[in-house]
Specification:
- By secondary structure, the chain is an all-alpha fold.
- The protein has 14 helices and two strands.
């Protein structure tokens, strides 16, 4: 992806170099997703590295996990050195993450979010072995990204009586950036407790599905978690079985 690589930040390019060094040190013939994870950890100034360290990760523990999953047939020092198919997929997903966030660069945070997209990826397996779930990482990335925003664009201005919004909702707001300014577009009205709860549940559904795109299915699933809510009551009155509807909404192949 030569034209897309031009959009990679200096830190993101350094992550790729560090990932290559990691692969060489393990005598692997390809840069694999687990090497990218190590590169993100070793690029200490990046948003991804800060998010991972905030969760208590350290490079040594990740290295131990990479060494543990390595097998003899992966070590081919005489083979041509290149990117594995999984790493190419992660880079494409990182580009997609930057596009979804409406940002014109690919940073370490996008690389980390791309690593989390494949639900059964090696990097996700390593994190889970270290008792860290993908949703925790996503929330930490959102928190670090919000810290980098100018104070005026954060969810709660200093001295404001409005309570700070929860980390999941902050993550949602980070994804609703203004196309023209690149800043968070705050809602002009407050959210009711029921709507906030529905959004929290919707974002959990996003995490469970392995996606980072909040769509109408997730919103419906979030609303349906409240069996006493207006939507649930209307559907029940119409004779619709809620449990069956929830199952259908969770099947990605259904329309």
């Amino acid at each position: 992806m030569p034209n897309k690589m031009e959009r990679f930040s200096q830190r993101a390019r350094r992550v790729l170099s560090l990932a290559q060094e990691a692969a060489i040190s393990f005598q692997h013939h390809q840069i694999r997703p687990e090497h990218l994870l190590l590169g993100l950890m070793r690029e200490e100034g990046g948003a991804a590295g800060r998010a991972l360290r905030n969760l208590g990760l350290d490079t040594r523990r990740v290295e131990e996990q990479v060494r543990r999953i390595s097998t003899d047939d992966e070590t081919r020092p005489d083979a041509q050195f290149d990117l594995s198919a999984g790493t190419k997929q992660v880079l494409e997903l990182a580009v997609n993450e930057a596009r979804r966030l409406q940002q014109n660069y690919i940073g370490t945070e996008h690389l980390l979010l791309g690593l989390l997209r494949p639900p059964e990826g090696v990097a996700v397996d390593i994190l889970q072995e270290l008792n860290i779930q993908p949703e925790q990482v996503r929330q930490q990335v959102a928190a670090v990204m919000q810290e980098q925003l100018p104070p005026a664009t954060r969810s709660a201005a200093p001295g404001s009586s409005r309570p700070a919004i929860s980390s999941n909702i902050e993550y949602f707001l980070l994804r609703t950036t203004s196309r023209s300014s690149g800043q968070i577009s705050h809602l002009p009205v407050d959210l009711s407790p029921d709507v906030k709860a529905a959004l929290e549940e919707a974002l959990k559904e996003v995490g469970h599905s392995g996606s980072l795109l909040l769509d109408e299915r997730h919103l419906l699933l979030g609303l349906l978690q409240n069996r006493d809510g207006a939507l649930s009551r209307i559907l029940l009155e119409a004779g619709i079985e809620l449990d069956e509807l929830i199952l259908r909404l969770r099947r990605p192949g259904d329309n």
